[in-house]
Specification:
globular; 88% helix; 509 residues; single chain
Length: 509
């Protein structure tokens, strides 16, 4: 009965999150096109690389969101309302401390790096510094808001999360249109308006949480023992997330230093594609993650393992069916979307999608590690792998390898990362590694190889035209779906998918 309730909750939340995803994807992709046309390729590259300096400190925020959500879900599993409220309060206190630390780091080391190391076009340093300061303020506001975002997800109120995300995206689209209508100072005004959007959404998120969730009532209480426990958990999360950021934003800065801002624009477009496609698996996992943590925390360990098996497959196949048409027809799709496509953007996007496909398959595994609370070895190990990507990219560029070599390296590291994660989880929680490799990794690999081979073969016979691009994309979706359904899923899993689909249809009706 409890399992049926969980499945219904996941199905309901999936409806909200995928509705959010469709609207959000359309708005965000169109926003990217408007912003690129408004700023131009060079200014677009400058904005992304300067904002990337702030994003490098963003590991503090993302790690504490995950930490806060984990602690809230654990307390929800225990059912203690008072402790739940205290946990939220200490999370807010921790975020304020982190915001202060981030501000100091950004205004010292970050500012020095922007002024002395980044390649900024002549005459654009003043605008770049303006962007940097606005990005710092926006980021600090985001940090302070993080516990409220975590509370919405922990309470599985995905309808509210979807609505607020769409409002945020629409506001950013409006900003893009305003900037496009201006004649001068576009980069500065864009950064300022994005900051204003962050401030407005900060008050909206906190106001909604205070009204809806009792645990979000804040009053000043400092419990250093509880904060110490939270920081102990999140400290290793921070280390892991820092290395992840080094493997993304750090590499972005290496690209700037070795090749210039034009290639940052290409990478930014590729990251936009990856971000849009990843929403198909991210939204599904957002509805599943709280259930994995709650099941494990309540003692239903086998149920949590089963959820990981199923969600690993489904998140990968959701990604595959969207990524495959893009991988095989990337250049014409980017041309239709952007009109003016930066050089190397298509190749970057294809390689990033392959890497993210690998990473999406093991995203659910991390939730078991978070549920155990023993994150030290797990985070340290994956941090080392991400650092290898950053250091390896620097060495490759120093040796004169092409700009795309870092993306190939990232694919190799992602594959190794799966084995490392499984080995650690087997040791920590008795996770069935052999069964996972046999029942999940093997069928995923077979489906991917068959799908890309068949899709490339079909598309090799299609000419370059709009209708051919449409036909090529449709064929890639169908081929991937057929292989995923017939080879990737077992009979039990197909029944599970059909039951979820039936629940979604009933909700819609």
């Amino acid at each position: 009965m409890h399992t049926d309730s969980n499945k219904k909750r996941v199905a309901k939340n999936t409806i909200y999150l995928y509705g959010r995803m469709i609207l959000l994807m359309a708005v965000s992709l169109y926003t990217s096109r408007v912003v690129l046309n408004a700023l131009g390729i060079e200014d677009f590259g400058v904005y992304n690389v300067v904002g990337g300096v702030v994003a490098m400190i963003g590991f503090l925020n993302s790690s504490l969101i995950t930490s806060t959500q984990r602690f809230l879900n654990v307390e929800m599993g225990h059912g203690d309302a008072k402790t739940l409220n205290e946990t939220f309060i200490q999370a807010v206190n921790a975020h304020v401390i982190i915001a202060i630390i981030a501000a100091v780091l950004l205004e010292t080391i970050g500012l020095w790096f922007v002024m002395n190391k980044l390649v900024i076009p002549e005459g654009q340093l003043n605008a770049a510094l303006w962007v940097f300061q606005c990005s710092i303020l926006s980021f600090i506001i985001t940090i302070i808001s993080a516990p409220y975002n975590a509370a919405i997800i922990a309470n599985e109120r995905m309808s509210l999360f979807a609505i607020l995300s769409i409002v945020d995206a629409v506001m950013k689209l409006a900003v893009a249109f305003v900037v496009g209508a201006l004649a001068d100072n576009k980069l500065k005004i864009y950064a300022l308006l994005i900051l204003a959007t962050s401030i407005i959404m900060r008050f909206v998120y906190s106001g909604c949480c205070v009204r809806l969730f009792k645990e979000c009532k804040y009053h000043l209480i400092l419990k250093w023992s509880q904060m110490k426990q939270m920081f102990s958990f999140s400290g290793w999360m921070i280390f892991g997330c820092l290395s992840d950021i080094l493997a993304s934003q750090g590499v972005n800065m290496l690209i700037n230093i070795f090749f210039g801002p034009i290639f940052n624009a290409a990478r930014a477009i590729a990251a936009q594609v990856q971000g849009a496609v990843s929403q198909f698996s991210v939204n599904f996992m957002m509805s599943v993650n709280p259930q994995i943590v709650k099941s494990y925390s309540s003692g239903a360990v086998k149920d949590s393992f089963e959820l990981v098996f199923q969600s690993s497959k489904l998140s990968f196949f959701l990604m595959l069916m969207v990524a495959m048409p893009l991988i095989v027809r990337m250049q014409p799709i980017l041309t239709i979307w952007l009109k003016e496509v930066p050089d190397y953007a298509a190749l970057f996007a294809q390689l990033i999608l392959v890497e993210y496909l690998i990473r999406s398959s093991y995203t659910p595994i991390a939730q078991i590690n978070y549920a155990t609370g023993n994150v030290r070895l797990y985070q340290f190990s994956i941090a080392c792998l991400f650092i290898v990507t950053f250091v390896g990219s620097y060495i490759l560029y120093k040796l004169g390898f092409p700009v795309y070599s870092t993306f190939i390296l990232a694919i190799i590291v992602a594959a190794i990362g799966l084995l490392v994660r499984l080995l650690i989880l087997r040791k920590q929680s008795g996770f069935p590694m052999g069964e996972y490799l046999r029942k999940v990794t093997l069928p995923l690999s077979i489906v991917f190889l068959l799908s890309i081979s068949a899709s490339l073969l079909i598309n090799s016979y299609l000419p370059d035209s709009f209708m051919s691009t449409l036909a090529g994309c449709l064929s890639a979706v169908i081929v991937s779906g057929i292989f995923a359904w017939t080879i990737g899923l077992t009979k039990t899993e197909r029944s599970f998918v059909m039951s979820k689909f039936a629940l979604i249809l009933n909700k819609i009706r």
